[in-house]
């Protein structure tokens, strides 16, 4: 986990309070700065001879911190990408669901329209059939009335004739 693959050079200076200051604009987290402030020797002060070793150790710690920070950012970026993919899949799924629902509604509407047309044709057919029956029964009624009128006429004539005969016989 070190900065073995990094080619960036970072130089540091110590200020008058032995705090570490970043010179080349590298941003460090508060935890890194706090650890850099911690004394590395029990006396709390660094010796001149140990300074080189501590600089190397400090560089190593900073490189590790930078690597951790980079890994954290990469992890967050990956989470955002995964979340984006998940949102995209969810959007696609909901669009597919909506499309299927629309198609089902269109099919149901078309089926209802066809059923209404079928019922309208059946109604028209029944209406034509009723009109035919009406015409047939009117014709039959007219024939019966005509026949009835003929029977009335014949019966009236026969009655008149019979009445005339009876009246002629008994005068």
Automatic annotation (TrEMBL):
GO biological process: inner mitochondrial membrane organization
InterPro entries: MIC19/MIC25, MICOS_subunit_Mic19
Record's subcellular location: Mitochondrion inner membrane
GO cellular component, one term: MICOS complex
Principal subcellular localisation of the protein: mitochondrion
Region (Disordered): 28-56
Membrane topology: Lipid-anchor
Keywords: Disulfide bond, Lipoprotein, Membrane, Mitochondrion, Mitochondrion inner membrane, Myristate
Name of this protein: MIC19 protein
